[in-house]
Amino acid sequence: MNRQALLAYLSSLGVAIGAGLASALLFLVLAKGSIVALCLAYFAPLPLMIASLGFGQWTGLVGALLGSGLVAALAYPSIGCVLYPLAIAVPAWLVCAAALRGAPPPEQQSRRTVAQNHPAAPNGAPMRALTVATLFLAAAFSIGALALAATYGGLTAALARLTSELAPLLRELKDSLTSLPESVDPDRLAWLLARTIAPTMAASALSVLIANAWLAARIVQISARLPTVWPDIPYNLRLPVPLAAALIPAIGLVFVGHEIGFAALIVAAVLGTALSLQGLAVMHDLTRGMAARTPLLFGAYLIISLIPPWPMAVFAIIGLVDAALGLRERKRLRQSAPPTSP
What pTM did the predictor assign? Predict the structure, then answer.
């Protein structure tokens, strides 16, 4: 190994160590329980994604493994030992690896502007990243929830155990918050939370991953280390049609109940979140060139932030319609069609 290769190796190793350490600390600060700690924890995948996109997939993988080891050492035996690799480290690396697959070689970087002006085919980096994140999180959280239920002797026993642990905490919260109405039943709320916490965490993990992937790619692009052209995200962010269509049978299986219904609920929550992101991309693409585009986008995101999660359900329907009818492709065809003569 020559001196230049050794320096490159040591540089990548240093980046991997730094990324793993930063990501683990951002996750571990969640134990503080404050709003600031929660906001910082949302950026836990970011260092790993910057390392993967800017310094190579193996750098990101080493960082993910180091971060998982550090969390396991410091947080054992809490659930964070499983949650960090399951929802942050491994999917962060997989998303970046999928996005970089098929990236153009360095000699084609001069074509960046051309590629930006002519959208890529629908199987670009955004589609690969969203597909991999959706598949991994749906499978990981479903299997993890069922495995945890099996350790307690079944789903019913596991949910009853979780409900019994949440109820005292919610009673204390109700007593300390005098603004809550008397009609709020802590036991009923604990029962509801126990049944929705896993689907909610899986859906939130997908949103956090995709948002961090975009931010990491922008940071790496600004530093001139992004090894591919910047994709047309509003046009290319989508699920493959068969995966999008899987939402319908997943919702149907929810009503089966028991372990199958619970796993289907997690899968439906992840697929619905992915389709809502696709619906947002549709909105961004279809409003291009409109005079009122900025206020429309601002209003949509304002509504999403004020009354979640119901607006996201609307965008999930839009994403499903786009998967079935190709709304963005129809717009492209209308724009490329020659004008008809009078």
Answer: 0.86
